[in-house]
Structures are given as C-alpha cells and as structure tokens.
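seq/struct pair 1
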Amino acid sequence: MDEIINSIGAKSLVGIPILDGDYLKDGLYYCGKCHTPKRKKIEFQGTTREVGVLCSCGQAEYEREQEEIQKAKREMYIERLQKSGIQDLKLMNCSFSADDSPDSKHSIYLRRYVDKWNEVSINNIGLLLYGGVGTGKSFYAGCIANEIIKRYAVPVVVTSIPRILNQLFSTGDKNNYIANLTNADLLVVDDLGTERDTDYSMEQVFTVIDERYKANKPLIVTTNLNREQLQKPKDIKLQRVYDRVLEMCTPIEINGESRRKTNAGIKKNEAKKILFNE
C-alpha cells in the first residue's frame, strides 16, 4: 500500500512542475502568478507526504482545456449526426441565416418551433409545410433539422418519400430501417404527394408515418399539395396517409415567390456576364 501511495504522490509532483517565478512559503511551493499553493502536505497512516496540487490559475487552465475537449467532442458528434441523418446533401447547409424572408410569418413560426423544441418534442407537435413549387418548403425543413441538431445535439433524420420507398425496396431488413426512422428524435419527410399510388407504396408510407404516431414523436412533412388536396384526395388509397399526417402535423403555408425561378434568373444573369460579357 505504501508503494502505491508513494507512487501516486510522486506522479502528482511530476505532473505539477515548479516553474520560474514560483517560490517557497511555509515549506511549500506557491505559484508565482496567482500566489496559491502548488504543493500540499497530507497525513496518511501516520505519515506526512507532500503531493502536487493545482494552483488557482492551473485549475482555471485545466477547466478551460476540459471545456475545449468537450466542445470538440460535441462538434464531432453533431457532424456525425448531420452526415448520418440528413440524407439530401443539398439540405445539409440550409440555415435560417440564409433566409431571404426572415420577417415572414412562416419564418417566425418555424424559428419559434426550434426555440421551443424541448416543449414541442414532449408534446409531439409536428409540422406540415405546404405551398407552391419552389417557395422554400424543403429549405425551411432543412433549416429546422440543422438547427435542432446543432443546438440540441439530438438525432434527426431528413429523407423523402421516393427515398424511403427505394430504400425499403432494396434493404434486406425493412423492420430495422423503419425502426431507425421511428427512433430519431425528429423525422423530416420531404415531398409528400410524389409517391407512387400503388397499394405497396401506400402501405409502406403509412407504416413509416404510423410508427412515428405510435412512438409519440414529432414529424415534419413538406408537400406541394394544397389543403383541399390533402383533405379530399382523389384516390381513396391516399386518404389514410393524408389523414394521419393532418392528425400529427400543424399545417403552415409557405408562400412567396418561387426561389427556383429567382435562382434561375440569377444564374442566367451570371452566365451572360461570364459568357457574353454583358
């Protein structure tokens, strides 16, 4: 036992070296910067031993280093969550800082959804983002997903109806695939309404959505369909899917100019400058 204690004491002394400016006081070394002890005497089994201790500035530096380590670990974890969860690379860099309509009602609502994530997740509050083509539904869904991952460090899966159907068709373990979608803290499903209206497709889409429903976990869905198309679909096979989505998700209309048309115009102008010197 004495050998173990002596070894620990010796290592503590080596780990906290005496530096230029440190000084002796009452038989112990003190830090020349913060003027607190770097050595301490302890009693153990009737023997007095000297061990190294962190001075105040040494303790502050240690805590700073630990904070940096934890920060780096968190950033690495968040990066893994993004890479594994956001399956559409175009959405990985979506950010509210790039929103060109930050004062619009829908933008304010969606930012508030992120701010109140702990509350909305407990209460299983989902969102249905609907509106015309190119108005930014997928962009906003990506913003929400990225912000929740970064701010709360929780697993989020962003996928689409076509991707779900393709992956279910190709995977050998459908139950495990659906479980991964179910277990994520948030599931974002893009492009509802683009699914093939076969019995198989409808059943698979309903299964994914219904598993989220039974797990009491929030779902965000985007669609180009309007409220009437969702509430009264022409194909009865769609009714069960859309009814479940409307039950789980609060509808928010994303309106405004088509970003696709705006972006296309910008690219055309840039092409003219580069190619035709206009």
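seq/struct pair 2
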Amino acid sequence: MFNIKIHKIESSTHENDGTFLQTPFWCEFKARHGWTYRRFEIEYILPPLNAEEGCEKSKETLKQVQGDNIHVEVAVLNRCFAKGMFSIAYIPLFPKLPYACTPEEVLDKAFSDQTEDTVPEAPEGSNTTENTTNTNTNSFLINQEIITPETQTIEFCHFLSELAVALKTELPSNTIAIRFDPDVIFKTPEDRDLFNYGMKTVAYADRLKLHKNAVDIQPPDSTLVDLTGTEEEILDKMHSKWRYNIRLSERKGIKIHRYLGNDINLSEKIDKFYELTKITNARDGNASHAKNYYLDLIKSSAEEVAAGKDVPVISLYIAEHEGEEIASIMTLFSHDEAIYLYGASSNNKRNLMPNHLLQWTAMKDAKAYGSKIYDMYGMPPEGKDENHPMHGLYMFKANFGGKNIHRTGSWDIPLKPIYHAYSIAEKLRAFWHKKIIKKLKGR
C-alpha cells in the first residue's frame, strides 16, 4: 500500500527540533546508558485515503502523489535483555498519522448550530467531495473531505505493519519486536480509547501482527502549556489559586537557582537533587535513575553547547528557603518544546509552594529560550476524579493552564515467538511494582 523504502543515515537535519526523543543528542545519551540506536530515512508513497473504494477521484489523486515521495527521518533504539539473548526495538513518538486531519475549527463550525454563509477553503493538497454534507437545517456546509484519526485507522494500522516489515532487516537479528509510540494526539481519553479500539479491530480483521502493549513507555497523557503568548497571558490561563501560590512562594522568600552542566558546583547540586529524589521516592513509592544518569545528562548538554552544537539545553532548578534546598526539577529546552523531565521535593516547607514557583521560573526561561510549549510530561487522565489516589498530581499539572492531550500509547509488532513470553513477564513486572509493592507500602 505504501511502498516503504528504508535508507540508513548517519546524521540528522533535526538536531534540536521536533520531539526531543528523536534528537541525536538524546539518542547518543541513551546509547551511553544501555541502548543502541540507528537512524533511518523512511521513503514512502501516500496512497489515496479509502483507496479500496476504487473511485475515479482516488485514482487521480494517486497519480498526483506518485511523483512526490514522502521522506521522513526516524531514530530506532534497541535495548538488550537476558545478557544479549534478545532485544526490543523502540521508536518513540513516531509515526504521525499518514494524512493531515481536517482542522478542529472547521469541524467545530461544521457541527455547530450557528448559521454561516461562508464555506471554509479546503487545506492545501486535500480532496474535495462533489456533494456537500449538511448536518441540519442551519448547519455549516462542508465542501471538503472530512479526515479524522478514525477515518484513517485502516491505513495507519497497515502503515505500522509495513514499516515494521521494512525495518526488520535493518535491525539486530535478536530483535523480538518493534515497539511504536505513535505521535497521534486526542482531546479526550474517550476519543483515544475509541481510536485504539478501532486499531485492535482492524488488526484482528486484517490479521495484522499488531498488539496494544499493556505497558506504555512514554506517558500517553500530558498537558501542554502554550508559551507563545506574553507572560501575563500565560499566567491568565492558570487557575487563580496557582497564580496566588506563585506569588505566595515569592513573598515567603523562596529563591530559585538555575544550574547548567558547566557550573563549578554542579556535582554538589546533583547530589542534593538525588537526595531529594530519594525522599520523593520513599513518599510516593516510585523509582528513579542512578545519580550518574542525571549528571551525565546535564553535563553532556553543556559540553555540546560549549562546542558550538545546537542541542537541547538541560537545566537543574533548585528552590531554596533560608539556606535550605527544599525542591528541585530538571528540564529540557529545545526549539519546539520544553519538557519537565524530573522533579523531587523535601517533606519540609511544602506549605511555601516551592514547586509552583519552580515550574513558573522554568516556563519563563523556556519562553526566553524560544520553546513553543512546556510539556508537564505525564498526568493520570482519571486523576480528575477527587477520589483517585493521584488526584493531587493531576490538579497540580492541569491547573497551570495547559491543554490536556492523550496519545495512543505503545503498540507492538512481534517479530519472534518469544515476544509473547516477554510480554507476559513485562505485564507481571508492571503489576508487581505498580500494584503489589505500593499496596504493601500503604499507597
């Protein structure tokens, strides 16, 4: 369907844009901590949507796109297990949907009850239908083909399947599965769940070896704070209590210090961050990386920046009150996004709201750097329920005024029979750590 071709490449044109997980900087960093990676150029032809209908218009569209192949870059990471007996190939935040979706504002207008006299222009490159769709007597008329994630579920499933086949010969022979974390975003968890159900249905009906993994690698749910407005506009979108907490923290004398990887006292500050991380883990029942992991991340960023390379900037922020360091976060800034990577806090002086001021300080710095969004990087969608054990975390992140997003989560394509045993073991491990251990510790 897509006629996919794979070309191995050594360098990238996306040094510091797009998702940070695909940047050479991040891949090189992960390669120093147990992973390997390969970078490819993916070349494919985009067939007409719903081509199986065989309409003349689709055939004509196919003629138009056949002369212009699509080229995208992707990094594929591999992690070995059982002393190298087998490995998993992992592709973070890739691919996007094959076809550009109809803009939300067009759909909102089309299905509103307001009468409009104008008709929106079709996006460049889209197909228009010969007949208009009328939702009701006063509806907005649509003279373009409506494309949503749900209308291209079949094509997306086959794209993942064909991509896995094309990549298989380029990966280590001990690779038992390719794991995708697609960059497909939904406004609500229900929309995401409906799309995933459609994916499962297509995979079953078309006998594709495509499985929804029970354990998601990247957090599928998050909230994105828009940094393109003024500082006043960003603050205005926050919950009023959050603006109050930021001002309270400032009035109470909280000082925020930012450290980069070339600071003289970096090692001492990483020690403090790691100490706070252990306190946080004991309180919340979570796990963390080794201290050297954080140190290597921030130092390697500063070293490459000092060498004149355009790579993401890693920063360590520490909140201090009367000489006591009580909270800390680590962030990543790139041209497109800023990421709240890690956070930790003491059990002391939490009433001074240091975490609110930490986040606001990082947002202002990210905006000054040029990042377009600030990603809180993970939140429980069900945490909106006041009775949920992670309701506090949900409210903390959601009330900074961001837009909640929901991705599909991880999808696997098995390459060897041993994958199924590995998948069962992975589920049991996740159940043990997330359910049993936390319950034993009273969480």
